[in-house]
Write a structure and sequence with these properties.
This protein is of the alpha+beta class. It is 27% helix and 13% strand. It has a two-stranded antiparallel sheet with strand order 1-4. Strands 2-3 form a two-stranded antiparallel ribbon. The structure holds iron/sulfur cluster.
């Protein structure tokens, strides 16, 4: 499962971050979602689907037709987290 987020739609409720902190984080400045793990591990797919369904603003979605070409690279989540926190929000 491949996820995408629309940060412009995100209202910063934090529900996804609370439910799946390995997949989502929030920008420290405005609370908008940061997608840490776009390619969701098979073991986390039900959790990710739950987050898609429960996002109050519809900001999280599954990329239609996406398949796993290869397993996502392991590790370096903290580096990605730092880069996304400093990225523009729109
Ligand atoms: S649940 Fe939706 S609205 Fe709330 S922080 Fe996550 S993406 Fe944003």
């Amino acid at each position: 499962m491949l996820l995408q987020v629309d940060r412009a739609r995100c209202c910063g409720s934090g529900m996804c971050t609370l439910r799946a902190p390995a997949i989502f984080d929030q920008n420290e400045e405005d609370g908008t979602v940061i997608l840490l793990q776009p390619q969701v591990r098979e073991s986390d797919e039900n959790l990710a689907a739950e987050c898609v369904q429960n996002c109050p603003s519809g900001a999280i979605s599954v990329v239609p037709g996406a398949t796993f070409a290869k397993k996502p690279a392991a590790g370096n989540t903290e580096s990605l987290r730092r880069r996304l926190r400093s990225a523009p929000t729109s």
